[in-house]
Amino acid sequence: MAGGSEPDEGKARDAALREMARHRGYRLVKSRRRKPGGDFGRYALHDADGQPVFGVADGTLTASAEDIEHFLRDAIRATWSTSEATTKARPDAPKSKPKPAPAKPKAKAASAPSEKAAAKPKPKPAPPPKPRFKPEVANLLTKLPTAKPDEDFAELLTRPGFRLERIVSRGQATPADAPMVQDRDEWVVVLEGRAGLRIEDSAEVQLGPGDHLRIAAGQKHWVTWTAKDRATVWLALHFD
Asked: Is residue 83 within 8 Å of residue 140, measured between CB atoms?
């Protein structure tokens, strides 16, 4: 996967924002009203029921393209951080100890109990079983390879019918005269960084953390640019 320069504002930017909003469950709205004092060129976000979520005041659209992008990026990072914290906490969760069986009530005696009977200790609860398996936890965003001329491909999992790999890009791009074509469907998601991607007979789309798409088998496609100031980390699933 692989860079050039980010496109100017326009249709490509609107398409990228619309795709980001769709992944978060929102619908992007853009005003085209040109009357004086109107909100031409402004944006807003609606939920699935058509209710305004962001960028609407007194029936007027108020948000810029940058406002919309910042709002969506913050929502993605919050979701990603919460998911990562939950995953890291899971292996260390302590196993609960079984509660001891309740003591049986003593029957009433005609006389006071003897000293020996009163001093009888309660049975100790059984210890929890020792774990028989220790999960191996790895992180896709740590220990990234250093910059080099080609992208870094790391195979994570292979099974009959699919292959999962991590790809790390640092400014690489697909040559215009050498598009990528694969014999399997491919699903890719950007975990970190930014990139541009174009599929044959379509416009370029911009991808950021959390953005994903599917490339059909046999479709020519190009990674038009990747960020040069940081690593762009992809997760790619090839499947039949």
From this structure: no
Stated pTM of the model: 0.47
Residue 157: which CATH number? 2.60.120.10
Residue 175 is assigned to a structural domain of this protein:
yes
> Each residue of 143-154: pLDDT tens digit?
899 878 899 999
* DSSP string across 197-231: EEETTS--EEE-TT-EEEE-TT--EEEEEE-SSS-
Domain assignment of residue 108, yes or no: no
Put residue 116 in one of left, alpha, beta given phi > 0 → left and psi -120 to 50 → alpha: alpha
Is 178 inside a domain boundary?
yes
- Residue 200 covered by a domain: yes
Question: Can you give the residue range of the structural domain that contains 164?
Answer: 11-89+142-239
Number of compact structural domains in the chain: 1
State pLDDT tens for residues 41-92: 788 888 988 899 888 888 788 888 899 888 888 876 666 555 555 445 454 4
Burial 166-191 (b: 16+ CB within 10 A, else e): bbbbbbbbbeeeeeeeeeebbebbbb
Phi–psi pair at 15, nearest 5 degrees: -65, -40
